[in-house]
Specification:
This protein has helices at 16-30, 42-47, 55-58, 89-98, 110-121, 146-167, 182-190, 205-217, 234-249, 253-270, 273-285, 305-323, 358-365; strands at 3-8, 34-38, 50-53, 79-81, 84-86, 103-108, 126-130, 170-175, 195-197, 223-228, 289-293, 329-334, 337-342. By secondary structure, it is of the alpha/beta class. Strands 3-2-1-6-7-12-13 form a 7-stranded mixed sheet, sandwiched between helices. It has a 4-stranded parallel sheet with strand order 9-10-8-11, sandwiched between helices. It has a two-stranded antiparallel sheet with strand order 4-5. Helix 1 (16-30) runs parallel beside helix 12 (305-323). The protein is globular and about 70 Å long. 6-O-phosphono-beta-D-fructofuranose (F6P) binds next to loops. 6-O-phosphono-beta-D-fructofuranose (F6P) is lined by residues 11, 73, 109, 132-134, 176-178, 229, 299. Its EC number is 2.7.1.11. It is found in: Cytoplasm. Pathway: Carbohydrate degradation; glycolysis; D-glyceraldehyde 3-phosphate and glycerone phosphate from D-glucose: step 3/4. The record marks 111 as: Important for substrate specificity. Substrate binds at residues 132-134, 169, 176-178, 229, 290, 296-299.
């Protein structure tokens, strides 16, 4: 029978187990394939650590958070061994061949798409399924995990409303999303945040403070601010952009190393930006300010129905591709269906929120401050 390997890589995301199950039940039950699950993402692939997945292993996992296979952020071409980065693509190819695999299914986000592309280039039959709470993968309508994380962040914004209101405070809720604002924007709108700050729109403290003061003038003595972890004020955004450009334009390996070190320094300096903004707003408005970092609760726990549905249908569609021997694709969600998109059109791309996006327009129309 056709023998397939599956793994989950990158940050965990609600719906991973639903996707493993969706793929596995279709592959094993419908097509009669054999399935093994590599442990801990790329790590298991390099170390050839896996387990046989059968109907029993796939049963009862639809509603379970995290990933039954474990995950890691390792890269196939820069795999860390004793503090040194090694190219492990040849090792992965060897393991794939030794195990007699016909295909490899990689569930992950942007980093995983790049790893998948590297393995496609090395001649392996790979299919990628897009997962991330950040919703920042190109060429797919959405990614599983995003809907659940949106529910969790919305619930958090709902909850801070009553305490902000009772104490007449500003509460800044920091929401994940890496460099993209999708999660903050979605939860900010759904939770009725008074101000939403996303990386795609650099803010000024003056603008945020003006929105809060206008609320005070109208009799609202509290404000809830949804802040993306990647949001920046105009100065920080300019510093970050300059540092990123330096990395892109560096020619020699030394220049690349120096530019990357500088970028890491800039990122480090900007890490506590939400706390800084809270202090600045307190000074500008006279209102007591507090910060809530939502953190990993956003990725944990049971996937919502929409993510289970999405993950199941992407998983099943991936098994169809294996059956048809069509490889080198990401299975994208498109409307109610799915389409295979060549990995070359996805790898290395990040989907940010376009500033003319309908959600941004809607936020403005209902009077939400966007900090600009
Ligand atoms: O990609 C998912 C995500 O949760 C991002 O929103 C966040 O920036 C990052 O992962 C956190 O990474 P880690 O799990 O390595 O702390």
């Amino acid at each position: 029978p056709t023998r397939v390997g599956i793994l989950t890589a990158g940050g965990d995301s609600p719906g991973l187990n639903a996707a493993i199950r969706g793929f596995g039940k279709t592959a094993i039950g419908h097509y009669g394939m054999e399935l093994i699950g590599f442990r801990d993402g790329v790590t298991g692939l390099v170390e050839n650590r896996y387990e046989q997945l059968d109907g029993k292993a796939l049963s009862g996992i639809l509603t379970v958070g995290g990933t039954i296979l474990g995950t890691s952020r390792d890269k196939v071409h820069r795999y860390q061994v004793d503090g040194e980065a090694r190219d492990m693509v040849p090792v992965v190819v060897e393991n794939y061949e030794r195990e007699g695999l016909d295909a490899l299914i990689m569930l992950g986000g942007g980093g995983t798409a790049k790893n998948a592309m590297r393995l496609v280039n090395a001649g392996l039959n790979v299919i990628h399924l897009p997962k991330t709470i950040d919703n920042d993968i190109a060429m797919t309508d959405t990614t599983f995990g995003f809907a659940t994380a949106t529910e969790i962040a919305t619930d958090a914004i709902d909850r801070v409303h009553s305490t902000a209101h009772s104490h007449h405070r500003i509460i800044l809720t920091e929401i994940m999303g890496h460099r993209a604002g999708w999660l903050t924007l979605a939860a900010g709108i759904a939770g009725g945040a008074d101000i939403i700050l996303i990386p795609e729109i650099a803010y000024t403290v003056e603008s945020v403070a003006a929105t809060i003061k206008a609320r005070t003038a109208r009799g609202s003595t509290f404000s809830v601010v949804a802040v993306a972890e990647g949001a920046r004020d105009v100065n920080d955004a300019a510093d970050y952009e300059a540092a990123t450009l330096l990395v892109k334009s560096a020619k020699s390996p030394e220049a690349v190393r120096a530019a990357k070190a500088h970028l890491a320094h800039v990122e480090d300096q900007q890490r506590e930006h939400t706390f800084r903004l809270a202090r600045e707003l307190e000074a500008a408005t006279g209102l007591e300010s507090r910060v809530t970092i939502l953190g990993y609760v956003q990725r944990g726990g049971t996937p919502c129905a929409a993510d289970r549905l999405l993950a199941t249908r992407l998983g099943a569609a991936a098994a169809d591709l294996v059956a048809r021997k069509e490889f080198g694709f990401m299975v994208a969600a498109r409307g109610e269906g799915t389409v295979p998109v060549p990995l070359s059109e996805v790898a290395g791309k990040v989907k940010l929120v376009p500033t003319d996006h309908a959600w941004i327009a809607a936020a403005r129309q209902v009077g939400t401050g966007l900090g600009d």
